[in-house]
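Structure tokens please, single chain.
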Amino acid sequence: MVGGTAGIVCAATRVAVKYMLPLGNIIRKHSINYHCYADDTQLYLSIKPDKTSQLAKLQACIKANRCIKDIKSWMTYNFLMLNCNKTEVIVLGPKHLRTSLSTDIATLDGVVLASSPTVRNLGVIFDQDISFNAHLKQSSRTAFFHLRNIAKIRNILSQNDAEKLVHAFVTSRLDYFNSLLSGCSNKSLKTLQLIQNAAARVLTRTKKRDHISPVLASLHWLPVKFRIDFKVLLLTYKALNGQAPSYLEQFLVPYCPTRALRSQNAELLVVPRVSKSRLGARAFSYQAPLLWNQLPVWVRGADTITSFKNKLKTLLFDKAYS
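Here you go.
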């Protein structure tokens, strides 16, 4: 999603679960990628930023128009209605390209699409720059709301019960889809780190002026940045061992040197060349090999996923609090 496309159009269409299979056949007929969920169908297509971008943009709009038209016809035939109020479009990519594309797709087959700078996808708020700033702000507000409520009753809770509440209402929000934040700046992640710090203070009744790192270490909590690295590396390990979706496996290429080197048996991965000034450095295809190659052999060579998780947490814990 973030590696080299000028624009990606996502549309959400509310449909009943039992109609997903025929709906998928209609979408596939137009060669448009999609994901189906319980009450959402997301359509997305990409446009490469080249000299023929105007032609590609026109072709994309025509393809989307025909697909929407067929969906409307099929839904009408089955006594269903396309809910325009819940149909959204977001264009991701360089600002100078997405502005014109947003204008062209404002109306598709008579359906006025609510073009929005942000859309919610499985609880995660996506923005046009893939900065996730809106998602971080929303997560911060929700987490602090629950944390304030926990703080009000902290005196009547045992340590064990208070920790359960913190994990259920606060920590779970820090970890939800946090792998998407890999490669984000420390400034962006500071918002989540402040939440974790506040949760640790409420749980341990630590004063605001006391240093928080020893408290986090005593709770065996990894800082936010290391929790993100843990999630990405765990996904990488699963993908390399056939325990992850195939679309993740295709991003991981084993490193094979052209001549005999000691690194040929080190289980390294190829780190693709990307423009770090753009979104390519945030992609899983870049972050996963980069972090994986930094692991010592005794972690990369773990036999089981349980062993890998234990060794990885030990390594990250030492790195965070050394």
